[in-house]
Amino acid sequence: MYIFKSDKYIDMSEKDLWYQSWFDTPFYHQLYNHRDEAEAERFMINLMRFLDLPKRSKILDLPCGKGRHSVFLNKLGYRVYGADLSEKSISSAKNFEKEDLSFFIHDMMKPLPDKYDTVLNLFTSFGYFDEEDNIAVLQNFVRALNPSGIIVIDFLNIQQIRNNLVPEEVVRRDAIDFKISRCIDNNNLVKKIKFDAGDRSYEFEEHLKCIDLSKFKEMGEIAGLKIKHTFGDYDLNPFDEENSERLIIIFE
Questions:
Q1: SS3 at position 31
Q2: Which of 100, 90, 86, 99 is nearest to 67 (CA)?
Q3: Helix (H), strand (E) at residue 81
């Protein structure tokens, strides 16, 4: 089995680097190309309205992928900086750069180079590491905040996932059948993705820590944060641990 890294395929025994390699492949973007742009824009409108950020506030979108949230936030009148570990994603996002909108490569495990009014961590882009390193990521976010800054984490609702876990499914995208299996193993949500493309067979894995609201509260306090608000979906309805699809947390 193989994973893609820097234009080469390497053995899956380096699976602790899964997020570095999988997110930089064309297959990752192909599998998730169904993401709803209108939904993403609605979420940003609702979130900015709730936060009541002054126009031209300085926002960091980390990780930003190919920049869909960053681009729209900039259209709303904010100074936006998108960062991601994926060189290919940043290369694509840079096509949208203009005044008050820029992108750079960054590993969120490392300290950030600047200060921001708001740090956004969107679309389940947290929980890739062990607890100590996840806390270190939060601490990096805290150090990058201006006074009275805000951190927003948009995570999945792990309890709802436990209640409704789909063990296996096949997702067809552009003539590729992605065979997906899911399980919860040692407090990790593990997704295995198998498919054939060309004359090769591939297998990738995603690993995500099962972090619920109480654990976020605990980790946030260690990092010097307090939870101010929680929401359960992109329309900012109240969070319901059993039924909400998302866990959206606003830290201060």
A1: helix
A2: 90
A3: strand 79-84
Tokens of 21: 């390699």
* Structural tokens at position 155: 């995570």
Rounded-to-integer distance, Cα 179 and Cα 74, Å: 37
Between the two ends of the chain, the Cα-to-Cα distance in Å is 43
Q: What is the mean pLDDT of each run of 10 residues along the chain (252 residues)?
A: 37 52 81 77 97 96 94 97 94 96 96 97 93 96 97 97 95 92 95 92 92 98 98 98 97 97
Q: What is the spatial distance between Cα 5 and Cα 17, in angstroms, rounded to a whole number?
A: 9
Q: DSSP label at 153? A: E
Length of the chain: 252
Beta bridge partners, 145, equal 116
Burial degree of 141 (CB within 10 A; 0-12, 13-18, 19+):
buried
CB 233 within 8 A of CB 160: no
Closest residue by Cα to residue 242 from 154, 127, 164: 164
- DSSP 3-state assignment of 137? helix
Residue showing tokens 């990096």: 140
CB 32 within 8 A of CB 193: no
Angstrom distance (rounded) from CA 100 to CA 83: 14
**pLDDT at residue number 14:** 43
- Residue 50 sits at φ, ψ, to 5 deg, of -70, -45
Q: State how far the Cα of 251 lies from the Cα of 119, in Å rounded to an integer.
A: 10
**Residues 215, 205 contacting (CB under 8 angstroms):** no
What domains sit in the chain, N to C, each tagged with a CATH number? 37-159+212-251 (3.40.50.150)
